[in-house]
Amino acid sequence: METTEILELFDEQMRRKAAPDSLFVSDGWSAVLWRPDDGAVEPLVARMRELPGHVEWKYYSHDGAELRERLVAAGLEPDDEETVVVAAAASIPPPPDDVELRVVDEEFVELAASVFGDRFDLPEKAVAVVAVVDGRPVSGGRVDFEDGVEFAGLFGGITLPEYRGRGLYRATVAKRAELARERGYRWLYSDALPTSRPILERLGFVPITTTTPFTLPA
Question: Model pTM?
Answer without folding.
Answer: 0.94
